[in-house]
Amino acid sequence: MPGPVKVKRELSVGEVAKRAGVAVSTLHFYEAKGLITGNRSSGNQRRYPREILRRIAIIRVAQRAGISLADIRAALETVPEGRTPTQADWRRLSTNWRDSLQQRIDSLTQLRDQLESCIGCGCLSMAECPLRNPQDRLGADGPGPVLLQPVAKDGAMGEGDQPGGFKGA
Ligand code: FES
After folding, report:
1. pLDDT per position as a tens digit, 155-168
2. How far is CA 94 from the centre of its chain?
3. What is the pLDDT of residue 4?
4. How far is the CA of 126 from the centre of ligand 1 (A)?
5. Which domains does the chain have, with CATH numbers?
6. C-alpha span between 143 and 159 (Å, rounded)
7. Whole-model pTM?
């Protein structure tokens, strides 16, 4: 009667690539970036623990969500002793990445809305175009040289006030 089937605990780089659905060069790249680590066999061949497949799956999902490799590595470094992320780890990481993704969605939505005001316009004006001058936070305060307007609390310019809120000497 045959004995129990032995589960191979370590995989070659080719096996990992095949099972994870990535190119061997991608694995080398991940390793160079510190996202995964392998061991050397006695014949100096690269070997990876089977758990690496879960780690690679997480890396791939995060990449699809647009998370940078640096951020993925930083997140994986929060998993104690470099172990394979558990379900609880994954819940925590994915929650953080969801928040980051939402921020980017909000930012892109705002960009799209700003772009809509440009469609059919073509002015590319520094004063009017939100895409030409995206940092213009003073735009909402009205037209003209806002910083040169009086800034008294009640909105009125007091005696001796200088434009821009400076008091005269
Ligand atoms: S091109 Fe006119 S508002 Fe952007």
Report:
1. 444 444 444 444 33
2. 12
3. 64
4. 9
5. 10-118 (1.10.1660.10), 142-167 (no CATH)
6. 24
7. 0.65
For residues 168 and 163, what is the distance between their CA atoms, to the nearest angstrom?
10
Verify whether ligand 1 is closer than 6 Å to residue 117 (CB atom): yes
4 in ligand 1 pocket by Cβ < 6 Å? no
Does the C-beta of 120 come closer than 6 Å to ligand 1?
A: no
> Across the chain, what does the average pLDDT equal?
80
Q: Cα separations (Å) of 106 from 45, 55, 100, 109?
A: 46, 29, 10, 5
CB 131 within 8 A of CB 118: yes
| CA separation for the pair 46, 108 (Å, rounded) | 42
Number of neighbours of residue 93 by Cβ within 10 angstroms: 20
The CA 118 to ligand 1 mean position distance, Å, reads: 4
DSSP state letter for 112? H
In tens, the pLDDT along 7-63 reads: 668 899 999 999 999 999 999 999 999 999 888 877 888 899 998 999 999 999 999
Both tokens of 169, joined, read 């000497």
129 lines ligand 1 (CB under 6 A): yes
* 36 CB neighbour count, 10 Å cutoff: 22
